[in-house]
Amino acid sequence: MISRIAFIICSNGYGHLKRNLAVISSLIDLNPTIHIDIFCKPKLTQMAFTQINFKNGKHLNFHDNATRNEISWLKKEHITIAKYNEWSVELKNNEGLKKADIIVSDNHILPLRVYPNVKLMGSFLWHDVNLIWNKDTSLIAKEEHDFIKIYKPDMLCLDGLAMPEVLNCTNPIKLPWFCNKLSVNKSKFSTKRLLVTGGGTNLLDELLCRYTMALAISEPELQIFIDNNLFKSKKLSSYKNINKFSFSNENFSSLTAVVCRPGIGILTDCVMYNIPVIVINDEYNNEIVNNAVKIEKIGIGISFSSRMPTNDMVIETLAILNNTSLLSSFSHKISILPTGGAELAAEYLLNTNI
Known about the structure:
This protein is of the alpha/beta class. The protein has helices spanning about 15-30, 40-50, 80-90, 95-100, 110-115, 125-130, 135-150, 165-170, 205-220, 230, 235, 250-255, 265-275, 285-300, 310-320, 325-335, 340-350, and strands at about 5-10, 35-40, 60-65, 100-105, 120, 155-160, 170-175, 195, 225, 240-245, 255-260, 275-280, 300-305.
């Protein structure tokens, strides 16, 4: 019987945290006595308590003592063989991980190379989307690829967005979107309301600042909301029609559309609240390219290239916001997307054989 589960949450971006919290919330609903240990960076612990899907169970504890040496596939200095080995030792020596019946590793393969009772979760694997290549990263990526190809580990993934490496080299447990749809009434808002967010990686923030300023000037009646990182820009906070977004149920429910870098976290929010999405593909890694293509394919939004001139991007955005039939089409496609993946993931973990 599963009585203790540990989660190792990747610290790159916020989507990993949101997905894990949704699964953890479902686990607590299914078994209030289950002991859950969450291993993540302190910044994610702080953020967890601000999330609308966070459920603080009686036996839930946060730790950072298995992620102090976590490698970051977004930073050159973090992807070295020495750093990789340091994290391996940290994982091996962690008493909390040793006690867990199951360990869920979000996107990282290294925990599976240390412990046999690891289940992977995510829609991509870092060695498959990494764009920082040198002798060390090439060796690590090859070792991880060869390992999962032989081991064929179980991986909880989002059906429709999972990347080829996940589908071909793991045993993919394909699940619907990791959320439940909420009833939303947008008719009470007479003005169009747009959220612009770059997510937790900050890779698009400079471009989004230019875009948001141009948009605010071009359409003064448009109510624009921005995330905390963008709001730090004094240039943006000085506009009357630009406000900081609270990420509350009420604020999400009021939105006409979202403009974002297509990370899985914000895309899941759009599915939950039935919000058409305009994604900006920065082509930083293969995951972002994959998500941008898939969003257009399933018909819930439109993709812009980050290389598009800012003025053209603004013109296209306003054209979309004024196209009622197009927005309705996006909204309908979102409404029929299957959800409930978090609950199914929780059921899988509780019923899996140790």
